[in-house]
Amino acid sequence: MAVQINPSILSADFARLADEAQAVKGADWLHVDVMDNHFVPNLTLGVPVVESLSRATDIPLDCHLMIEDPDRWAPQFVEAGAGSVTFHAEAAAAPVRLAREIRAKGARASMALKPATPIEPFEDLLPELDMLLIMTVEPGFGGQAFLDIMLPKIRRTRELISRHGLELWLQVDGGVSAETVERCAEAGADVFVAGSAVYGTEDPAAAVRSLRAQAERATAGASWACAH
Asked: Is 26 flagged in the annotation as binding?
């Protein structure tokens, strides 16, 4: 599967979101972190901003809902224009029903796992999803250091995906940079969320191209990609 780079607007200038979206031309998706100050100790943006952003950019929106009660709110983000909606396993009351509702409304359904949440209990849910997100930091704030202890979890998740023959994207989010993207790709990730590693540079579009090239090189030599 092709490498995808999703710049996170959590690291962008919120006063210039339309311009910041234009600054990452060539990105596959624009990652939008939605936080409610309940599920995580931070407050960001909601449905109206997603709706406005979807009109301001041709890059599809990848909304990561770090919120309580995603069963209630996630469908509204699809209606606002999100092309992919990620809910947290720890917050969803009925994840299968929610994933099916997101898909029925026309978006890709994704589920996220916090660092301490194992993948194994959710193995039977994987066919209901289009993407699985492995958090490589504790959700809530940008700019955190990458947690190396998540690499074995990424490998185990990739093994499960391969075992079941699924066309499931495996996304990583948190501390992804030039220093860590290759390790994530080697472990089995194919979708990379990068915030400060893109928006913290002089040329965000060039940073996207550079991260993609690194990830593609690492993927080409990865055992999981060769087996696939």
From this structure: no
